[in-house]
């Protein structure tokens, strides 16, 4: 098909608006995650079921739109120059995310997050833009369904975890494996191929944003990659210094210590009330003797161990007075 004919199809403003809504939702999620991580809000956004469902919904929307975009961009014939230009931008963005999280969160850096998945699944899904629709749909169902029936501890390792068949995922702030998310991209391919060239597409193309809000969302959708890359560094540039100034990081460290101590103490058969007293005493001792580093790293010198033992005896005697009989 000639290039001039390829240019006839209008840009679908609705798709840009959908991308804009998705990127706004992701900014809201990341803002909430940051506030949770630095203990500005009490909820654990990374594990709370409602927030997890919200994050999965956003991811689902993004991955469907990847498939939709492949059909819109190349369904009438491959535009290789355009494809590789955008693909390299996504790969570069993914590399920046990995580098940035390596500095900010070295213990849970993002090595295969949203952008990494978009880059790889765009390549893997591209042939399905041209295969029979039934085959694309079948592939989507298989890719989505396979992780529900197969898992292996081998994929718990970072080296293989990006594939998606893990039993327990490795620690990372974002992991978007090929299975099942390639299948979600293929759903987007199927949906757009079914609409492409129909009356439905003409009606969608006729919808044009009139309000400032809709036009703003459309603009954000067209620049979604740039917004994705810059929003988290900007948020952290505000939240991290604010956290240090307000002492929320110290409060977070105290809370983690108390929660861990409380669980260990109660597992030993001591009542919750006595454990609370014991752990508060332990926290005061760790602060007094400046033992945070050995406590959290496990690198305990003989002098540190002596302080920890003395603190333990003091706190044990506090909840069991008979230990003071000596």
Structure characteristics:
disordered N terminus, 326 residues, mainly alpha, single chain, 2 domains, 15 helices
Please provide a written account of the structure.
- This protein has 326 residues and is mainly alpha-helical.
- It has two domains: 3-246, no CATH class; 248-325, no CATH class.
- Helix content is 72%, strand content 0%.
- The protein has 15 helices and no strands.
- It has helices spanning 3-6, 13-37, 49-74, 80-104, 114-125, 133-149, 158-161, 178-195, 199-206, 212-222, 224-246, 248-267, 272-288, 292-297, 302-319.
- Helix 2 packs antiparallel against helix 3 (49-74), helix 3 (49-74) packs parallel to helix 5 and helix 12 packs across helix 13.
- The protein is elongated, with a radius of gyration of 26 Å.
Topology at a glance:
Layout: H1 3-6, H2 13-37, H3 49-74, H4 80-104, H5 114-125, H6 133-149, H7 158-161, H8 178-195, H9 199-206, H10 212-222, H11 224-246, H12 248-267, H13 272-288, H14 292-297, H15 302-319
Quick overview:
This protein has helices spanning 3-6, 13-37, 49-74, 80-104, 114-125, 133-149, 158-161, 178-195, 199-206, 212-222, 224-246, 248-267, 272-288, 292-297, 302-319.
